[in-house]
Each structure stands twice: as structure tokens, then as C-alpha cells.
Amino acid sequence: MNKRGFASDNNSGVHPKILEAIVNANSGHVAGYGDDVYTQQAVNEFKKHFGNEIQVFFVFNGTGANVLSINSLTNSFNAVICPATAHIFVDECGAPEKASGCKLIPVITQNGKLTPELIKPHLQGFGFEHHSQPKLISISQVTELGTVYTVDEIKAICDLAHQHNMLVHMDGARIANAAVSLDLPFKNFTKDAGVDVLSFGGTKNGMMFGEAVIFFNNDLAKNTKYFRKQSTQLYSKMRFIAAQFIAYFENDLWKTNATHSNKMASLLASKVEKLGIKITQDVSANGIFAIVDDDVRDKLQQDYFFYPWDELNHEVRWMTSFDTTPDDIENFHNALEQLLNE
Questions:
Q1: Rounded average pLDDT per 10-residue block, the chain, 342 residues
Q2: Pick the CATH number of 253-340 from 3.40.50.2300, 3.40.50.970, 3.90.1150.10, 3.40.50.300
Q3: Alpha-carbon distances of 285 from 99, 267, 281, rounded to whole Å
């Protein structure tokens, strides 16, 4: 087995408490498709964080959550504005466009974050039948470049969207890492900031599988149960997703895991910077983007699995996880240092 790598927090294992919760739920028979006590308890856990006036839909994975969100908020003649680095644009094989019929409009950013100034040039063609109608702005928190939106930055985007009768979707695949980075409750930078629908992820932070789509305006969710079924995201044995979320929220396991992964990223960043490695983005959560010569990168990858990010500019991405250890960081640092000194 290769040394523990830094390719993705998807590559980490499952937290023991999550596994235990799955095993504990695997007893007897309960109603399927979410009509069970586990699912109701999990929904209640979300209500503790976001308020009682929400609707929660559990799905298998992040792409499913994003597709379900977009389907629920748009028609096929609409357009979705997102960063050019967005997961929905780069890493979902066209699933949002295929499923919704919408046009995705990618916006170039320097740090993965949209701003009103970057969005405004794309707010045109309203009411003109020859143009896809802008309806949704999608942002990621944490972004795909490891940066984190502030509350004010999210509010500014939401205010702009709502002024134009548009809506805002947040891809929260790493929302726990963002909450730790901001030191704020989830609600402060989602519902209270004006976000309309949230894809809430847990897989990258210790869960086995399963995500949640959270609607802050129930009127927007009137057809979501049908879209979920049509998109093959309605899990018959829903209790095994729900049980994971119950354990995830119990004693703030989500926070413990995300705090650790963020801390490991900061440790790795400080160590490689001392070796003269240039870091290209703020290390706000659990991702590090750095410039590494191709020869060094290729040799390092023989022992440590990680992805090139921008090969043209020799940029790589290193991700830490809830189960990354200081020894992992130290060993990686030593290997990198040795290669740089050859």
C-alpha cells in the first residue's frame, strides 16, 4: 500500500463512529424511503442547525445533491451562473445540464469566489426569448480552490440575485470546513445570508455516503420529491443515510473532524512554505494549492498520490482529511525536501 496521500478528502476512510451508527441501524425492519424514525431524527438534527422552517431531502452523493437543487429551482430555458472552477461545471460530466436542460455560464475568478462585479455582466437578456434566462447563481463553500466566502460576500451575491428575481444555490460539499474556518454556525452563512437551497455534504468529512439538500423556502421544494425519484436519488433504505447524519451531528463530530483537517492543512502549508514552495491560494480550509516543478512532482507521486491542478502552470492540489496525521505531514515534508535538494 502506498503512503497515505493528499489527493482528496474523498480518499479518506469512514470515521469509526459513523460505521458504528450504520451497524446499530442495521437491526430489524423499518419502513423504507424515509418513513422511519432514523430519517425523522436526522431531519430534526438539521432543524436544530437551520431552524424548523426547512425541508430536507437525502440523496446518495454530491452530484445528486447539486442536480436535485438545480432541477428544483429552474426550468430548461434558464441559465445557471457559476465560477469556471465550480464542481457543477468541471467535475460532474455535464450532469446538471443534462438533467435540468439549463445552460451553465462559467465565470473566470482569481480565487474560486464569485462577486457581484463578476456576475453583473451576465445578467442580461431577461425576457428576451432568444437568450437563456438567468435564474440561479451557484457558489461553493468551501470553493474548489480552497477559499472561503465571508458572510458579507455571500449576502452581497444573494442580494444581487434576489434583486433580479434570481435564486442562490450553495454547493456545501465541504461546508463543515467552512464553518470551522469562519467560526460560525451553519445558519449564519447560509439561510441568514440569503441562500435559497444548500447541498450539505458529509462524505468528505468522515461519512461513508449520503448528502442532504436543504430548502430554506418551502415553496421552492414543491416538486423536489418527484425530481429526486426521477434522478434515481431516492434511497429505499434511507435509514442508513440518516443514521450517519445523526452520528455526524452528535457531540459535534462534524466539527471535530473538520477542525482537524483544517489544522493539518495549515501545518502542511507552513512546512512546505519553509522549503520555498509557492502557495497560490489562501489556505482557508483543508486544501493547499502550490507550484511544484514537474520533475519533483512526478517523483513525489511515486509514493504519494495527489492530483496536478493546473499542469500548464505546474500547480498541484494537496488535500488533508479528518484522518490525516502529523506523521503523514512530516513524512511528506521530508520526502519533498529530499527531492528539492537533489
A1: 81 96 96 97 98 98 98 98 98 96 97 98 97 98 98 98 98 98 98 98 98 97 97 97 98 98 98 97 98 96 94 97 96 96 88
A2: 3.90.1150.10
A3: 31, 11, 11
